[in-house]
Amino acid sequence: MKEEKEVLVKVEGLSKKFCKDLKLSLWYGLKDLFSNFRGNTSERLLREKEFWAVKDVSFELRRGECLGLIGHNGAGKSTLLKILNGLIKPDAGKVTIKGKVGALIELGAGFNPILTGRENIYNNGAVLGFSRQEINKKLEEIIDFAEIREFIDMPVQNYSSGMKVRLGFAVAAQMEPDVLIIDEVLAVGDLGFALKCIKTIDRILPNTAILFVSHSMPMVSRICNQILLLNQGEAIFQGTNVSKAIDLYYSSFSSDNSNVLFDDESIQLEKVELLNVEGYERNIPQLKWRDEFKIHFIFKNINLNEIPKFSIFIFDKEQRPVALLEENQENTQIEIRNNRIEFILKHKEIQLSKGFYYLNLYVSQGRIEAPLLRINNVLVFQILHETDLWPSFLLNSEYESINGEINK
Q1: Alpha-carbon torsion, ordered 122, 126, 129, 131, to 10 deg
Q2: CA distance linking residue 250 with residue 261, whole number of Å
Q3: Entry pTM
Q4: Which part of the chain is CATH 3.40.50.300?
Q5: Which of 130, 133, 225, 293 has its CA 20 to 30 A from that of 385?
């Protein structure tokens, strides 16, 4: 039986509330100050204009584990990290952390702007609990990793955001703390540095517990072996099934209303429906990989005399454009009948990889393609497959033996 590694971070029933009104917040703070002397009985009760930023969150993080903390803006991620890092006090619950903690929770956090990069390395190392001799041994590695040697003796206030991220991550990672907390700051750096950070995380992870916060699901999937999905301060999913939590994260976007970016009121979308569906999950239609892709459109024609051009774009779960369905030609069979334009758009064999996808609609007219209607996220659908992939396409392929025929 495999021996479990020690628990480095233990969070039990953690809750934190804030007040939307400044004056009320000051009043509540004063009342709580006195009530704490005799035991605060209202720590888990909401008062007027209060809300839960974090509510009853519990988890354990062991050495060698990387917990991905995901959720939309305002879900409570940053509040939770600030509690873990000791910057704010929880209203209820308990946090136990063993060992040295390195945190990258805000851009430039922990840096003294008037000190040089070199001086800040010593300051941050001391905060982590390392002696000057220990920092001296790591100093050159930190400077090399950050790739800012020519600027290391310049005040940090003159650094760019990318330089601050490089230096902050270099100190936190190269000093190899027991617990490393990373909050979205890697998104500021360039791709090359992000890849180097991921490689470093792989190296230190066996001896470290990492709490990783990001809106980049490919990065979360690549790094994390545990997942915690927050929504309005509450944990709605946690465990080792990272892909399921990511699916839940993406599917929540489908509840947003379609975004009408442009409308000259000459044509109106009445209906869009995915046909030939395999099933539904949370009202999202599902297709199997390589199924026929059929979309039924109905438009109300207000004052057009001819059929416009319909452009249907497919965006992936990271909101990147991945495909354009071939546009209708001038000799199309589509007609205007009873002030309606109705058609079915077909694609014989959909080979998008497993995941959620979004359709954006653009309707235009004439040689200059003058815009008539533009709507984002007119339809959300899910492709079903047994394999999780981050590339947007899984192309059907065949492997054949050449049998000596390659030169024929």
Answers
A1: 60
A2: 22
A3: 0.69
A4: 7-253
A5: 225
